Amino acid sequence: MPAATSDTFDARSDAPVPDAAPVGMPGGAVRQFLVHQYGELAQLQGDWPGVPLAADLGRRDAMREVCAREAIGTPDAPAELVAVCGVPDGAGHVDTALTDFFLLRAEGAGVAAEARQHMDAFGSTGDVVDVSVRRFGPRVFGFVVEEGFTAQGVTVGSIAIVLPEGEGFGLAAHLRSSLDNLGAMAACAERGDCADDAGYDLGFTLEIDRRDAGAAVWPLRVRESGEACGRRVERTHQVPFDMGSGRWTVPAVLQRDGCE
């Protein structure tokens, strides 16, 4: 997917400023849009089985549900961000979830997708932990996807930020939310062969730094805390947004798989 440039980065300029109440669309119109994409069983609450009707949403059988829906528009230009999450039939431990992202706007008496993207890069066992909509700038909204994976006693939690990008969506940041080897340490303790100071248990709290009122997209601030191989860790990482690439510049320390 091509990176956005400072000239083409999509800030969705008709979205509301922070003090305005975002405006969405009637639930019936949004459901009808979903029916056109997924079939008559699609609904706003609860899950449904089957293969999408729209070819760009994949051809896999899955149980799907609306996992995020948030109003982001104005009275003159109602809009919503909607995510549909699917657990593929027969999903195993290494299978990712199916996630479809939509930026919806009113079109006549109905709803149309100004941007849409099918992704299958998040989660494990066919599922993600959570999907939510957050504001990342005065006029910029996007999805936060929480995911996790456990293997050989190591658990890695991550957050992905997905923003509208032209007629689709792009991955704008990927960073840790948790990191521990508690399972591995419990196993080696039973065997009596744990290495000295080998354990780690870290949490990462994501905050959006809104202090710069003039920023088109706000930087992120990540607070890291916990134990890392015999050391107590308490530190804060600054994550700036690069307008040229349309991405946050995530340091390697927030994408690591161990103590450092």
Task: Report on this structure.
The structure is a single chain. With 260 residues, this protein is mostly beta strands. It has one domain. It is 8% helix and 45% strand. It contains two helices and 14 strands, in the order αβββββββββαβββββ. The strands form three sheets. It has a seven-stranded antiparallel sheet with strand order 6-7-8-9-10-11-12. Strand 8 and strand 9 form a beta hairpin. The longest helix is centred in the N-terminal third of the chain and has 12 residues. The two termini are 30 Å apart. The N terminus is likely disordered.
Summarize the structure.
It contains 2 helices and 14 strands; from the N terminus they run H-E-E-E-E-E-E-E-E-E-H-E-E-E-E-E. The chain has 260 residues and is mainly beta.
The fraction of residues assigned to DSSP E strands is over 45%
Q: Terminal Cα separation, in Å? A: 30 Å
Overall morphology: flat
Tally of structural domains: 1
The residue fraction in helices comes out at under 10%
Q: Rg from C-alpha positions? A: 20 Å
* Number of strand segments: 14
Spans of at least 5 consecutive residues whose pLDDT stays below 50 are 1-9
Strand-pairing-aware structural class: mainly beta
- Encode the helix/strand succession as letters: HEEEEEEEEEHEEEEE
- The tally of helices reads 2
Tell me about the biggest sheet?
7 strands, antiparallel
Strand line-up in the sheet with most strands: 6-7-8-9-10-11-12
Mean pLDDT: 92
